[in-house]
From TrEMBL:
It is found in: Cell membrane. Residues 6-383 form the Major facilitator superfamily (MFS) profile domain. It is a multi-pass membrane protein. Pfam families: MFS_1. It comes from Streptococcus cuniculi. The keyword S-adenosyl-L-methionine does not apply. The lineage of its organism: Bacteria, Bacillati, Bacillota, Bacilli, Lactobacillales. This is MFS transporter.
Length: 384
């Protein structure tokens, strides 16, 4: 008989891979050297896109996942997603063709997108009341633990060999087994399309906020390694450690978001947006380890705070039947920002002949000023 604790753990642990496409970020400088040595036409932005292109498929698959669930069922859809992560996440270890590696990264995104929204809806299917709230909070914590864990493992695998970084995705297989053994099938209630679809000023502002935050957060994630390793000549291990700190700091916000928003209310959004801007701005200063650790903490904590507030706002200001659709649009906005990050923060700067190590952090800080203006418009919209 399945124990309650194992079922809860199995439901939560699938979330550790939802941001695992970022795990190889510490290896970007070494991966660039590795692939560029084999094909000089491969630029830095192309290698950075290995971190961000999965987000494109995550976006598409999130929107189509309901169709897959109707064909396979919820449990099989999650198992398929985990299987794709394990297979196509690790496969680049053994490939030398850059286009094939890009295809594998796209299929990794499909795997993540298949059960991204299910990681929340499954909790709602099995739990209610305070237990559901606790599980959703723990789900956020597990997501950030997963980002920290996969980034940490990938960073140390890099010490063995640059291509071994991708082996971190083999962790998906034991999670697949846990989920298969401990979580039963469930059937999600379907909502009529006309009831779910909505677009108005509030939706637009939430999507724009997640778009800007996606650029700022992922910009820091992919530019910290380049800044430390290429600009300052420091070790890839240090960049991996900073990204691990960045990820772990988000766990704190995830665990205490409820009391924070209860205390600060709408001011929570402005506080975390300013923290994101300040964190990015600190990376423009000359290298100082304590300062850069603080910057990583600010970026990591603020990202989780911003996204948590957005989803909290959606659940509070939209009818229940519209929440899933609006949440999917918010995730889509963020993922579009993720996909465009290498274009805006690397390729565009290269075209304009602007340095690409420190300037991106100035841009990200500026985007948070714009985000504060959007946030002001969002919180001023009265409840209907």
């Amino acid at each position: 008989m399945k124990t309650k604790s194992m079922m809860r753990f199995s439901l939560l642990v699938i979330s550790i891979f939802l941001m695992s496409h970022l795990a190889i970020a510490p290896a970007i400088p070494k991966l660039y050297d590795y692939y560029h040595a084999r094909n000089t036409s491969i630029g830095l932005a192309s290698v950075e896109s290995l971190v961000t292109v999965p987000a494109m498929m995550i976006t598409i698959t999130v929107l189509l996942s309901n169709l897959v669930v109707s064909w396979l069922g919820t449990k099989r859809t999650v198992l398929l997603g985990l299987g794709l992560i394990g297979i196509f996440g690790a496969l680049p270890t053994f490939l030398t063709s850059f286009p094939l590696i890009v295809v594998c990264r796209l299929l990794l995104g499909v795997g993540i997108g298949l059960y991204n929204s299910l990681s929340i809806s499954l909790i709602s299917d099995f739990y209610e009341g305070d237990v559901r709230a606790q599980m959703i909070g723990l789900r956020t914590a597990f997501l950030n633990i997963g980002k920290a864990l996969t980034t940490f493992v990938a960073g140390y695998a890099l010490l063995i060999g640059v291509n071994y970084t991708f082996l971190v995705y083999l962790l998906a297989f034991p999670v697949l087994v846990l989920f298969y053994l401990n979580v039963p099938e469930t059937h999600q209630a379907q909502v009529a399309v006309k009831e779910a679809l909505v677009w108005n000023r509030k939706v637009g502002l939430v999507v724009c906020l997640t778009f800007l935050v996606g650029i700022s957060y992922i910009g820091a994630t992919i530019k910290i390694p380049s800044l430390l390793v290429t600009q300052y000549g420091l070790s890839t291990t240090l960049s991996s450690q900073l990204l691990t700190i960045l990820a772990f700091s988000g766990i704190i916000t995830g665990c205490f978001f409820g009391p924070i928003v209860k205390k600060l209310g709408d001011r929570t959004l402005f506080a975390v947006l300013m923290a994101m801007g300040l964190g990015n701005l600190l990376f423009t200063l000359p290298f100082n380890l304590p300062l850069f650790v603080l910057a990583s903490i600010l970026v990591g904590m603020s990202f989780v705070g911003i996204m948590s507030f957005n989803f909290y706002y959606i659940s509070k200001h939209f009818p229940k039947e519209q929440v899933h659709f609006v949440t999917s649009l918010a995730i889509t906005g963020g993922n579009i920002g993720v996909v465009l990050t290498p274009v805006l923060l690397t390729k565009l700067l290269e075209k304009l002949q602007i340095e690409t190590f420190i300037t991106p952090f100035y841009i990200s800080s500026g985007l948070m000023v714009i985000a504060c203006l959007l946030a002001y418009g969002l919180v001023k919209i009265k409840n209907r």
